[in-house]
Amino acid sequence: MKKVTVVFWITLAITVGLSLLGIVVPDQFEDVSGAVMGYISDKFGWYYLLIVTLFVLFCLYLVFSPYGKIRLGKPGEKPEFSYSSWLSMLFSAGMGIGLVFYGVYSPVSHYATHPPMAEPGTTEAIEDALRVTFFHYGIHAWAIYAVIALVLSYFMFRHEKPGLVSAALEPLFGDKMKGFTGKVIDIIAVFATIVGVATTLGFGATQVNGGIAYLFNVPNNFWVQLIIILIVTVLFMISTYTGLSKGIRYLSNANMGIAAVLFLFTLVIGPTLYIINSFMDTVGEYIQQLPRESFRLAPNDEGERQWVLDWTVFFWSWWLAWAPFVGIFIARVSKGRTIREFISGVLIVPTVVSFLWFSTFGISGIEAQNEGADIAGLPKEQALFGMFDEFPLGMVLSILAILLISTFFITSADSATFVLGMQTTNGSMSPPTTVKFTWGLAQSTIAAVLLYTGGLQALQNALISAALPFSFIMLLMVLSFYKALKKDKEKNWK
């Protein structure tokens, strides 16, 4: 059996310690973590915008460069998973529950309460709402995931290195990455992974509870959420036991099937032509405004600047914080693809699907709001169900949505246990089930405890603050990767 490394014990201790702070002094922990996050956003907002845009440009460069034909594996090696299964898995891990959680809430919230530039409730606010939602869930978010996933996949399958962030830095720092410095880097990555997943489990439990409370008058409280977490934990443990090629793959395919049914129902029942027209119009606006939005900090308008910090900088730091988990998982399932195929798949397909999803659910939600439903006034976890309540077959759609949230919930937790197992067993491609079970129980316990104490927001603040040091690590990974690519070219690998 593969043994766990010191990274396992140190990260577990740090995570438990921070969780205890959330239990013992939740208000103080939230105040301090919130202040740190606010300081980082204010002082490093320019840096977040710059680095994420550089990641986008780097990905586009690789697609059109001669490096694009290099395979993530040995020459001639075939992909491990079919194209559809691969896309399903990366999408489920990368966005999944977030699209269901925010599909209605984000556009409606921007439209009704705080659009970036227009007056709330106006036609201009609709255009603003959809465009900024596209921006926050578009190519920039997926470029963050693509960079770390590409670098790790390249070193794992091309150079047979362990699936560790530290191993990807060996071309720059050599054997130092096998010592203390490398362990610190891996600890940051593991910490970001477990805290990111614990917060997601917490949010997932609140949305499932919000849905069944809205539909069936079930109490919306911690004890119901605890039962939901326990059920999901048992289900993802079963999936974990079956392994990557069965459990996660089957669940991811099921996710996409349920999501497709829900999407098509909403498209047909909702204002179909208006949705299609809005999608087309907003894609054009998105492309046209992309350079400006990528660098917008509004230093001369305090209100607009605060909006950028609260939304764009927040989202960029959130995606950066999630990058270790999502990136490592995408890397693991991308063996055998060329760099060009990889970037095209990771960058373009999920971005287009996200745009279609937000157009359909966002415009339908805005229409329901305009027709008298107070979608914007509902808690964010109930916004989707409030919209469905205005539809024919609303109950059927809501039940489908709860099922979809649950399967995304299980897939995220299952993927996370696999990634955590990899990172704490020296990059093993098939981590022991006992290690995965340990991490599964840990993340579920942390989520439940923080829901009980109200410390979930504080832990999320800590996670986003950890995105700053990890972004420096990602920059070094890009430099290390490019150095290795140049050597590949010299050897004329094809």
SSE blueprint and pairings:
Elements: H1 6-24, H2 26-64, H3 83-94, H4 97-102, H5 105-112, H6 123-137, H7 139-158, H8 170-173, H9 180-216, H10 222-242, H11 244-269, H12 272-295, H13 302-332, H14 339-370, H15 383-388, H16 394-423, H17 433-453, H18 456-491
Q: How many independent structural domains?
A: 1
CATH class: Mainly Alpha
Instruction: List unreliable stretches of 5+ residues.
Output: none
The end-to-end distance, rounded to whole angstroms, is 36 Å
Q: Which percent range describes the beta-strand content? A: under 5%
Shape: globular
Q: What helical percentage do the residues reach?
A: over 70%
CATH level-3 fold name: Amino acid/polyamine transporter I
**Based on DSSP secondary structure assignment, what is the total number of beta strands?**
0
Q: Spell out the helices and strands N to C.
A: HHHHHHHHHHHHHHHHHH
Class from helix and strand fractions: mainly alpha
- Major sheet attributes: none
Count of alpha and pi helical runs: 18
Task: State Rg.
Answer: 22 Å
Mean pLDDT: 86
Q: What is the CATH architecture annotation?
A: Up-down Bundle
